[in-house]
Amino acid sequence: MNTLSVALGDYPHVQALLGGDVTVNGYAVEPVEVSPIIGAYRRMIRDLEFDVCELAPTSYLMALQAGVPLTGIPVFLNRRFHHADVQCGSASGIRFPADLKGTRIGVRAYTVTTGVWMRGILRDEYDLDIDTVKWVVDDDDHIEGRAPANVERVTDGRSLGELLRAGEIDAAFSGNAGTGRAGAPRAGWSASAEQPAGDDGPYPLFPDHEVLATDWYLRTGIYPLHSVIAIRRDLVDRDPELPTALYAAFAESKRRQIEADPQWSALPRLGKQGRQIRTDPIPYGLQANDASVRALVKFSRDQGLLDKDFSADPALLFAKGDYPDA
Q1: Please, what are the domains in the chain?
Q2: Which of 91, 97, 204, 302 has a CA between 20 and 30 Å from the CA of residue 43?
């Protein structure tokens, strides 16, 4: 039996697959632990180190455009809304999205998917000219050469959190996309002492972010993707049935997790998001994710990360296979 080296994040809905309780027809799964999983993205894109690997969706799309011999299946292991992600410096004076014009905003890397989603929202929903913003980064892009001229690299080793507290940037993304970590993802990737919001610390651009995110979803049907499954193309060329078999295994692994834990107590954030959107918090498949995939392609094209003629048709962005919504 052939083996598949598989690198995934530590999600409860993949444990049955990684543990062997759910099988991939014709293959034995060989889990590869990479912590943080973000550290696997560059290794997959640049070196094809794994047979199957979770990737950031923007990186996956850019890899397709760059001709990296990868393909994928419409399995999105992680989802997040982003209206809460922009934190403003305590002395910045920023109150509205329009106030971000001409400011300096920190983000781990320009192509990080959180940044792509939020820049798209700021541009389309709030008419912010994102080209007037100086985007300050402290890590490399997985695929380089597409960042615009208004990107500035931190060169003195300080974290984005330090720069925000010092007032040298006006705002920044929080969490792994910005102030929650320092430098490139690596073993022992440590928190950068993100300062709690409050009277003396950073404050959210959108205090009512949950209401705004839910409203945006209900109006647009867009539910931001944050993880996609990529496969080495040569494996699919050799076995065209592999994508279907792999998709079925991921779907069954998720089904078992939901059956055992319908409230998502093992990952409360997804449970909360499920209540927000009143449906499955991590839908798989082409039809269920059509609006979200098309939106991410549009935002990526608008921001210069994908060519203008890059297809937004989800059916053309994944390996041929049978992908019923699951």
Answers
A1: 2-79+223-316 (3.40.190.10), 86-220 (3.40.190)
A2: 302
